[in-house]
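Side project, low priority. Logging it here so it doesn't get lost.
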Amino acid sequence: MAYLDEHARAAIRPIKRRVEDELFARPGVIGVDIGEKVTGGRPTGRAAIVVYVEVKRHSQRYAIPVQYGGVPTDVVQESFQPHRALAWSGGVHGAERHSCLVGGIGFGPCRSVRLVPPDVAVPGDYPVVGTLGALVTPRAALPRLMALTSFHVACVDDAWCVGDPMAHPSVVDGGHPLEDRIGTLARAALSGSVDGAVLLLTTHLDCRAEVVGLGPVRGHARAVVGSAVRKRGRTTGVTEAAVASTDASVVLDFGNDLGVRTLHNQVRLQAGPGGRFGDHGDSGAVLLDDANRVVGLYCAGNPSGSIGFANPIEPVLEQLDVDLLVET
């Protein structure tokens, strides 16, 4: 699969940013990105502004302009969701119990949250599960062992507060809210580019700066379009995808009083033909490049798992004021 080089992307980027708000104001638009225009299922080799919509509309009233500033548009029908999970459905690879805390394992808040339709089909109190991404330490405080994950997994709704207890395994996966506590919520950020949170670890378990099945964390770097990345998530285990873009803006409905948010300049992942990169329960996993450097924090994807989205790691670390713990 071919990807646009940086020169082509840089030429389109100012135009994409200029029209992005106008596009998101149109009904049903859920994503704006830069990519290759596809016509009749075939790549054309032309750079385009890719517009993701929930439903393609043929009415002139809702039609997306065919071009902006000479740059063609490509309208793609899709849907995207945050990838935390509310219930264990079986067949997962990451719900096991670990005697050592590392990246890539399942965890969740000890508290349940009250959910009602349309967030869930049946009203009730639901526990939440996601993935513990990687170990971190605070930048401007006494050294403490902490762990990185997604805001929408650790915080869940607007009732969150610092000190909320967390468990591994999660309550969803059979963990006990008292006996399996591993730490508490310490920091969180849900902004225009970051969906992140940090736990202060208070567990008696050993901890290592590595990701299950992928090895030691060696630092962090920027995601590079066309490069391969891997992640280990609670639900899908170890998977691989290509970085398709670092210019994606996507609308996500976090529900639970957090509402609809737009994340800008996200890393878009594309799995291979017929492949799946992520699923519900994988939010919070970190993306590793070939040098085992963290390049992103996974947060969402489409229903088939072929497309995923991640926060670029630099603003995550900056806004949470932490550094990755690396293998020495």
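Brief comment: The chain has three helices and 24 strands.
Revisit when time allows.
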